[in-house]
């Protein structure tokens, strides 16, 4: 057994990019045993993936951390990766036994301080892209990369008893990132009023051959609360309406596994950049992605590997929806 240990004690979206690396290692090394140390935010999801062999929740209490370290220290690792760049992951990585140790960080100071403890430190401002970073880690292991490694969920069977099946649909993921008060204030507002929101949905149905599924994540917002008044309640999570021989479905408070199921079976996705973006890529779906122009350099490094991808800058909703509709 060849042991690999990765620290990803942050969020699901961050893990989904790292999962490309894990999937590639699994393909290259049939004897691999991959262990991930997670946070509360991504543990439940990482624990559901078949290509991950062992998953741990990073402990909170000091005494628990000591016992946790002793448990991890029983193994010798082929590679340890502090992929989240957090201090806790760095300290564990330094003292555990491994042939190769890699650190990925956005902090130049960390690159200087910890350079003697890691085989390679990938400083974000110096890397071309996250894909290039993955390729360099694989090179350290004498492993190759193929395009299919990116689509690590494409062949996975995913079931859901909560979803009412419809065919030929696109997803509009309308989460808290569309609402000014619930997202980063320095970013340009893309919040619509209710009439503009309804008009955009109507135009999508008119301009495409698809049905429409609206997902909201786990936080309902005031636009959705008003909009669902015009729909028929199917159950606690689903509202529905027929419009011009097409179907609009609205899912509220759906969990990440139901969102995953819906994305797996959609034609394409409209979303503000986040975990949904990388989830759709893992299924090799067409993606319309929205982010703030101030974050262009950052997001282009994270997204450069995505194949069927169109991005838009955050701007006034009326202008933004015209640009999105022109690409549909």
Molecular structure report:
The protein is an alpha/beta fold and 328 residues long. It is 35% helix and 23% strand. The protein has helices at 12-28, 43-46, 62-72, 87-95, 108-113, 130-140, 194-207, 222-227, 256-264, 275-282, 296-303, 317-327, and strands spanning 2-8, 32-38, 54-57, 77-82, 98-105, 120-123, 169-173, 211-215, 232-233, 238-243, 246-251, 268-272, 286-291, 309-313. The strands form two sheets. It has an eight-stranded mixed sheet with strand order 9-10-11-8-7-12-13-14, sandwiched between helices. Helix 1 runs parallel beside helix 10 (275-282) and helix 7 packs parallel to helix 12 (317-327). The protein starts with a strand and ends with a helix. The mean pLDDT is 94.
């Amino acid at each position: 057994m060849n042991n690999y240990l990765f620290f990803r004690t942050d969020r699901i979206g961050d893990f989904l990019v790292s999962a490309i690396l894990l999937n590639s290692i699994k393909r290259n090394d049939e004897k691999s045993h991959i262990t991930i140390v997670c946070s509360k935010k991504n543990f439940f999801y990482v624990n559901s993936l078949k290509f991950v062999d062992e998953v741990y929740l990073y402990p909170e209490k000091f005494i628990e951390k000591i016992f946790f370290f002793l448990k991890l220290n029983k193994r010798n690792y082929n590679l340890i990766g502090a992929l989240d760049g957090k201090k806790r992951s760095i300290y564990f990585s330094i003292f555990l036994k491994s042939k190769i140790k890699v650190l990925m960080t956005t902090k130049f100071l960390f690159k200087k301080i910890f350079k003697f403890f890691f085989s390679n430190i990938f400083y974000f401002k110096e890397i071309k892209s996250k894909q290039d970073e993955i390729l360099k880690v694989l090179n350290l292991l004498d492993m190759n990369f193929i395009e299919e490694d990116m689509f690590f969920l494409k062949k996975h069977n995913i079931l859901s008893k909560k979803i009412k099946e419809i065919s030929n649909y696109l997803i509009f993921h309308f989460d808290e990132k569309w609402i000014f008060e619930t997202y980063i204030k320095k970013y340009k507002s893309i919040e619509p009023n209710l009439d503009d929101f309804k008009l955009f949905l109507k135009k999508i149905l008119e301009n495409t051959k698809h049905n429409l599924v609206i997902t909201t994540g786990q936080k309902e917002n005031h636009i959705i609360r008003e909009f669902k008044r015009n729909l028929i309640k199917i159950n606690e999570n689903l509202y529905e309406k027929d419009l011009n021989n097409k179907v609009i479905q609205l899912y509220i408070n759906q969990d990440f596994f139901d969102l995953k199921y819906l994305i797996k079976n959609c034609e394409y996705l409209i979303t503000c950049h986040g975990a949904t973006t990388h989830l759709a890529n893992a299924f090799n779906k067409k993606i319309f992605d929205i982010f703030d122009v101030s974050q262009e350099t950052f997001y282009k490094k994270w997204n450069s590997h995505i194949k069927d991808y169109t991005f838009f800058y955050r701007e006034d909703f009326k202008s933004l929806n015209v640009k999105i509709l022109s690409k549909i």
